[in-house]
Design a protein that fits this description.
Elements lengths: L1 H12 L4 H27 L5 H4 L18 H16 L4 H17 L5 H21 L4 H17 L5
Helix pairs in contact: 1-2, 2-4, 2-6, 4-5, 4-6, 5-6
Length: 160
């Protein structure tokens, strides 16, 4: 699913629509902020995955033993999908269930506890909401998008 998410980011970027590019930047910044939140929270609490601590966990994927709190996959998907849902309000029913299903899958395959997923989702949603409010007002973002568009127009100029 990570590959599909990356593909959607690329597709939205290369539509050459300002709103879509702003959404991709916002999603990327949300992910970075959510990962910072996750690293901070993981220093306050640590636990091994369910397949390490519990008997009879049917591990469905190969996973190394490490701190499972909070779920990084959940952070990735919620930060990006909530960003998409905020920017494309008419498509929330696609992005939010997708993020939720990824979170549930992490529990299903035996690599995270429900609290790992819940905290990852909460941190990522908080980061997405913060970036939704901040990103459109960042001068650096606006200037970068403008300069990139100018560069792209020069490179891909079609002669009439």
């Amino acid at each position: 699913m990570l590959y599909f998410l990356a593909l959607f980011l690329l597709i939205f970027w290369f539509t050459r629509i300002y709103h879509n590019r702003l959404m991709v930047i916002q999603a990327a910044l949300s992910f970075i902020l959510a990962e910072c939140f996750g690293k901070l929270v993981s220093t306050l609490h640590s636990n091994y995955q369910p397949f390490v601590e519990l008997k009879d966990v049917n591990l469905l994927i190969v996973k190394e033993v490490n701190n499972s709190f909070p779920s990084d996959h959940t952070i990735v998907f919620f930060s990006i999908c909530v960003s998409f849902a905020l920017m494309r309000k008419h498509q929330w029913y696609i992005w939010l269930p997708l993020a939720g299903l990824v979170g549930l899958s992490r529990i299903w395959v035996g690599v995270h506890y429900p609290a790992d997923v819940a905290v990852g989702a909460l941190l990522a949603t908080l980061a997405a909401l913060i970036m939704y409010r901040i990103t459109p007002h960042l001068r650096l973002v606006r200037l970068s998008l403008e300069k990139y568009s100018q560069f792209e127009n020069k490179v891909f100029r079609i002669n009439n």
